[in-house]
């Protein structure tokens, strides 16, 4: 009977600690994420979606713009999953590379910009908690994670371009490299 009681106590303690963690987030990270989302939506409304589209079109002309600038701007301004929608402004040929890039960036930017991917925040907070326990700087880790992510996003997107070229030739499909947006 003592074993059963000990297991039940341990089980309940797990949920009590989870509740305490949840309440700490409600007074800490959740308001920050909410305010960042409000600020980004206000910024998009002030700038105008049409102007954002123009920036995306111009940036799509080179790999650095396509796989570093556009993913960063779309993730920062729109968050996950809305950041994927910026791919609509890119030519068909580059959409697979953009998808590869933005999917990676939504994960590697959480330490600095938690509003981008709040669903992944639990992973980041777990890692950051370990870093804090070791007495190390969490922002140092967040910046390194972001910078490595930007480089890997670029590589992933550009490599995907080469794969699209190969598969397009193999399948006899021609994808447009120019963007056509209905005005």
TrEMBL record:
A GO CC term attached to the entry: membrane
Transmembrane segments: 22-47, 67-86, 142-167
Alphabetically ordered keywords of this record: Membrane, Transmembrane, Transmembrane helix
Domain of life: Bacteria
GO biological process, one term: phosphoenolpyruvate-dependent sugar phosphotransferase system
InterPro entries in the cross-refs: PTS_IID_sorb
PANTHER family (UniProt xref): PTS SYSTEM GLUCITOL/SORBITOL-SPECIFIC EIIC COMPONENT (PTHR40399), PTS SYSTEM GLUCITOL_SORBITOL-SPECIFIC EIIC COMPONENT (PTHR40399:SF1)
Entry protein name: PTS sorbitol transporter subunit IIC
Lineage, opening ranks: Bacteria, Bacillati, Bacillota, Bacilli, Lactobacillales
């Amino acid at each position: 009977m003592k074993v059963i009681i000990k297991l039940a106590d341990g089980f309940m303690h797990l949920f009590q600690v989870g509740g305490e963690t949840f309440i700490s987030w409600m007074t800490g990270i959740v308001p920050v994420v909410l305010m960042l989302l409000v600020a980004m939506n206000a910024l998009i409304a002030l700038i105008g979606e049409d102007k954002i589209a123009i920036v995306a079109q111009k940036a799509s002309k080179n790999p650095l713009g396509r796989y570093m600038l556009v993913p960063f701007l779309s993730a920062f301004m729109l968050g996950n999953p809305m950041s994927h929608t910026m791919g609509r402004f890119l030519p068909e040929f580059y959409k697979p590379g953009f998808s590869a890039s933005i999917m990676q960036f939504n994960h590697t930017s959480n330490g600095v910009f938690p509003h981008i991917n709040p669903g992944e925040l639990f992973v980041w907070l777990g890692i950051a908690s370990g870093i804090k326990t070791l007495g190390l700087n969490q922002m140092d880790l967040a910046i390194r994670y972001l910078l490595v992510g930007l480089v890997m996003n670029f590589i992933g997107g550009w490599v995907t371009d080469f794969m699209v070229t190969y598969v397009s030739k193999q399948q006899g499909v021609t994808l447009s490299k120019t963007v056509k947006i209905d005005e």
